[in-house]
Amino acid sequence: MLHRTLPLSLLLLASCAPSTPMSTPAPSPLLDGSIAEWSAESAAWADASHVYVRFKVPADHGAIQNAPRTVALYLDADANPTTGRRATAKVFNTLGVDLEIEFSPRNAEGSPTPGVAAFAVAADGTRRKIPNEATGLTVSPTYASRWYEARIARAVVGSLALPAEPAAAGGLFVTYDDAGTIDGYSEPFRLPLPPRGPEPKLSTLPPDKDPGLVRIVSWNVQKSAPLTNAAPFARVLTLLEPDVVLFQEWDNPDPDALRSWLEEHVPRSLTPGRGPEGSWRVRSGPGVAVASRWPLENVPPDTLQMTFEQRERTVRMTSALVTTPLAEVLLTSIHLKCCGSATGREEATRQAEAKAINLMLAESSRPWPMSMRVIAGDYNLVGTRTPLDLLAEGLDTDGSNLAVADAATLGDNAVFTWRDWSSPFTPGRLDFALYSDASGKAVHAFVLDTSRMSQETLARLGLDAADSAASDHLPVVLDLLPIPTAR
User: Fold this and answer.
1) Which domain covers residue 271, as residue numbers?
2) Which helix or strand (DSSP H or E) is residue 314 part of?
């Protein structure tokens, strides 16, 4: 139910949060920006390690972490009105607010700022900021949407000095007007909490490299980090045994530099029959590259220029045709414009870049009409989803749109490819892979996060739990099976 506290308020939170426990999805929701697995009457869910919530905002609200208005979650972490802050408004009377989480948090003047902020709330209303990492807060999607999902680590209750381990929790959402005053709120929700336990670790291995599939890895390596910290990247890429790697933020434009690094640190397959055994071939562009174990042919243009706001701009992309024993694959590594909001200049730039890449690929793919096609990289979808849709439009071999690879983060039920706890933003899915599902089937699609692996798994694979921290982005892996009738 929606409520207005100010008659002229236009920004109202829409949440179907029940005031009493309702049926909930099982198992725990997949935090991927889709609410398809939630039952219609459920707005909150808890497992041993997290509390999950879903909520709805108006269509013009913008991306939740960089919006013109603040949305806040008031959480009664122990469903006890005698702990935390007791609000005076009637709708809050059943809550003792212990934790407040603000999306696009207010500054000292009450104006929204980018990111997310969490606060422990005392009975007298004073707030103490809690680092986002301590909350384990994750929100999906990163771009503007009507519905959002979020989760909070239950371990954060240790920061709240509650008198006992909670057996239930409650809360509600509020919105703030331009003056920093609450102008909308949802119905309060309440949910039972199962016994708290540690976050589970991945107990199964990632899919092996199958010689009957074409394995593509896309990885933003954060300012050419492999050049100064080679070991983590070498361990991960050696394990994955990719046919092709699409790099972003590889800033050295000389393809020989990347080829030399790969030859030194990612040797040919150590398991005969499991992967390609040739030398590396490289096509590099402005901050991006395509590296292949198989024969590689450059796809024009060498540099894609576009006119934006009456100025020439270089688009961070490069394309190559890779001829594997299974199929020809036309691959494009991209890195769209970073940052901004749903309505800012950065978003307009991203959309213009996506259109330019789409038009270029529509022309450059003509010589290989039946090749499998992949566009992967850092899409930076922090404004809208539109750049992804613009890139996919009409580029499949049958003239339809490219498909989005449904890459899940192994060992977790939250889909994210970027994480930087020193940032005000929560982990999110910034990296995507589009592929031609008319000419190839995505057999596996996953994101590798070594911090989610058990010590036994890490030891077996020769990895370190901190390997994923070598970059702020995680590698996205796509295994494609060519469709014979499309060749």
Assistant:
1) 214-486
2) strand 311-315
196 and 165 in contact (C-beta within 8 Å)?
yes
Does the pLDDT at position 383 exceed 60? yes
What tokens appear for 245 in the block? Answer: 């790697």
Model pLDDT for residues 267-309, shown as the tens digit of each residue: 865 444 444 556 899 999 999 999 999 999 999 999 999 999 8
- Sign of dihedral through CA atoms 194, 427, 422, 455? positive
Number of structural domains, the chain?
2
> Token pair of 65, please?
């972490």
Is the per-residue pLDDT at 227 higher than 60?
A: yes
Backbone φ/ψ region at 178: left (φ over 0), alpha (ψ -120 to 50), beta: alpha
Indicate whether 271 and 164 sit together in one domain. Answer: no
Q: Identify whether residues 234 and 277 lie together within a single domain.
A: yes
Tokens of 452: 């989610």
Cα dihedral 46, 147, 102, 413 sign: positive
Instruction: Judge if 300 and 247 occupy the same domain.
Output: yes
Residues 101 and 218 in one domain: no
Among 153, 117, 119, 154, which Cα is nearest to 136's? 153
Residue 207 belongs to a domain: no
- Decide if 231 is inside a domain: yes
CATH code of the domain covering residue 357: 3.60.10.10
pLDDT at 276: 53
Q: Please check whether residues 140 and 101 belong to one and the same domain.
A: yes
What's the pLDDT tens digit per position in 347-375? 999 999 999 999 999 999 999 998 999 99
* Amino acid, single-letter form, for residue 177: D
d(C-alpha 92, C-alpha 172), whole Å? 8
Residue 437, number of CB atoms within 10 A of its CB: 22
- 3-state SS class at 387: helix
In a domain, 46, yes or no: yes
User: H helices within 266-370, ranges in order?
Assistant: 345-364
For 229-300, list the strands marked E by DSSP.
244-248, 281-284, 288-292, 296-299
Question: Which among 136, 162, 192 is the end of a domain?
Answer: 192
Pairing of strands 244-248, 214-220: parallel
Residue 288, C-beta contacts closer than 8 angstroms, at least 6 positions apart: 246, 247, 248, 250, 316, 317, 318, 333, 334, 335, 377
Beta pairing, strands 440-447 & 408-409: parallel
